[in-house]
Specification:
The chain is α/β, with parallel strands linked by helices and 299 residues long. It is built from 10 helices and 8 strands. The longest helix is centred in the C-terminal third of the chain and has 22 residues, at 195-216.
Length: 299
């Protein structure tokens, strides 16, 4: 009996040590672009800031969206680490799950990366800044220190970047997500993989450059990881189907403890985004999450 007790104690101590793993970086800034297809990375010669992050870190153009390849469904998976069948959001503009979520956290919503940070790193300052109002129904706003909508962004497209820069400089967020919506509109108007689409993407590349420049002005610039990704791609002027143009999206990561590894070939799904962020911060994943961290990108 004494031997069994010592064995179980050793297991518990080992588990506690694993859960107490130190963060790989103290700050993560994620810039996520609605409607950004992975096919676009063939044009990075005209996207210098995106290209720089690709060269300095690791990337794939084939991170797969969950089905259907629409907005709310995939923004949900990006933040809550599980697929459609588990989180229950099934429509492009879902505000609540049409299928009951398999599990609900303390705020009556399936746990998101913000939920985990609030529970396991209560001193963390977290933020989400977005252009599409639907984001706030998917992130567990009760767990977020600060969330804000960029109003009239079609008239003032760089307003969200002003807001992000102020957040970075004034709040030193532990985790900040900046959710851009305009490229999806351009995909619906001009069409995906068209000159108009790439003109908008070049504009966004400039915005990414502004955020990177702002991060470099902080005292924590060398203790930060930057992620670029998307909810879904598109084909012609639409999305929501099962073509690879709609399903495949970029995932680019660079910063502290990230390899200069270039393109990686391992499979990545939308819900692996949340798992990778949780891994960076050394957070325990809830059992309901099915996401896997992309551990191969780290030193």
């Amino acid at each position: 009996m004494k031997r069994l007790f010592l064995f179980l104690t050793a297991i518990l101590l080992c588990a506690a040590t694993m859960h107490a793993r130190k963060p790989l970086a103290k700050h993560v800034v994620m810039i996520a672009i609605d409607g950004w297809g992975g096919y676009s990375l063939k044009h990075t010669d005209s996207l210098p800031n995106i290209r720089t992050l690709m060269d300095e870190g690791c990337w794939t153009a084939r991170k797969r969206s969950v089905l259907p390849s629409s907005s709310a469904i995939n923004w949900a998976s990006m933040f809550n680490g599980c697929p459609t069948e588990v989180h229950g959001y099934t429509k492009w503009n879902s505000r609540r799950p049409e299928i009951p979520s398999r599990w609900e956290g303390p705020h009556g919503i399936i746990p998101t990366i913000y939920t985990l940070l609030g529970e396991q790193m209560p001193a963390a300052h977290t933020a989400c800044i977005y252009e599409w109002d639907g984001i706030k129904y998917l992130i567990d706003t009760l767990a977020v220190s600060h969330h804000a909508l960029s109003v009239d962004y079609e008239k003032h497209p760089s307003q969200i970047i002003d807001m992000a820069e102020a957040c970075i400089l004034n709040d030193a967020p532990t985790f900040l997500s900046v959710c851009l919506d305009g490229l999806d509109h351009e995909g619906h108007a001009a069409g995906h993989d068209t000159p108009g689409y790439y003109a908008k993407l070049r504009e966004y590349d400039g915005y990414i450059g502004r955020i990177l420049k702002t991060i470099r002005q902080t005292a924590w610039a060398n203790n930060c990881i930057v992620i670029l990704t998307a909810d879904h791609g598109g084909i012609k002027k639409t999305h929501g189907g099962a073509s690879l143009s709609e399903l495949e999206t970029p995932f680019i990561i660079a910063g502290k403890h990230v390899k200069r590894g270039g393109e990686f070939e391992e499979s990545m799904m939308q819900y692996d985004t949340a798992a990778t962020i949780a891994y960076i911060f050394g957070l325990r994943q809830p059992q309901v999450w099915t996401g896997r961290p992309m551990t191969q990108v780290f030193k």
